[in-house]
Amino acid sequence: CIFSIFLFCFCRKSLSRSSVRSRMSLKSPKVYNSLQKGAVIWDPKPLQVKKIFEALKKGLNEYLEAHQAELDYLSGRHKDTKRNSRLAFYYDLDKQIRSVERYIRKLEFHISKVEELYEAYCIQCRLRDGATNMKHAFSLSPSTKASRESLVELYKNFQECTEDMCFIEGALEVHLGEFHLKMKGLVGFARLCPGDQYEVFVRLGRQKWRLKGKIETDDSQTWDEEEKIFIPNLHEKFEIKVTELRGLATILVGVVTCDSINFFTTKPQAIIVDITELGTIKLQLEVLW
């Protein structure tokens, strides 16, 4: 029991030293107002956050490598043009090099910030797990006044860690960038006929995109909107719903969900989603991060 109390005191001190808000300068109440102390706390998802972090870091490193390669190429040309080219062209190339160097520094800072946030998240996650294990240990021991008081304190520490993890999740989302979605059309072979009209509804959390399209006589497709920007979300998946419009009636074609983890990459991706169970109608999108 004395050992358990010692562990509890150590954990409590660790929590106070590791308070996210005291160690990190995240000063943006307009962005994080829903995550401040006293706000409603949801359940953190460490495994999902880990997957997003790894995908995000990989994508950022791809951008960094691409711009580093561009910088190396421009620097090589810079040395050649210094001897063999006009002065105006030389200064224009020098301007491009400085621009790429600034962007590389921004990327490096972005990566370091994401790593800092995730490191703080992992610390709070371990402290939260420790508080959970100690709560379980205390619940198995004989009930005394000291143990009951310890359980109350452990519950407070658990809540604090949970809130800090949610706060970091909100801060991490700010660094996820944007997804640019382009509508490429439906693919349905014999299922799509001239004159058919469809409505596609794409949702990511609270973000929505509703667009209508028509199959033309030459089998081409026209859509009233072709591009939409979505802000990535740590926990939400893309939900895609397709309905066929027949006069005043609507017929549900299918509803599917699509994970966004694979979208964190430098190159535009063509995404083909099966809308029906048999894949007779597919939706084709292009995603650029």
UniProtKB/TrEMBL annotation:
Residues 11-289 form the FAM65 N-terminal domain. The gene is Ripor3. Pfam families: PL48 (PF15903). Belongs to the RIPOR family. InterPro entries: FAM65_N, RIPOR3. This is RIPR3 protein.
